[in-house]
């Protein structure tokens, strides 16, 4: 059942919006802090959510091709 829900365009768009929101929050955190350790800790979520957004775009494209 979860696979059916996850393979819908609506679910992928919601995941993409969430990923983009976290990317923006990570960027704001990087530019607002001055210590190096916080910048390093903010870069990791930025990378993870960037990869997640690319995967969401890929899944949306794949779902559209199936239809």
Automatic annotation (TrEMBL):
The chain crosses the membrane at residues 12-33, 39-60. It comes from the Bacteria. Keywords: Membrane, Transmembrane, Transmembrane helix. This is Uncharacterized protein. It comes from Staphylococcus felis.
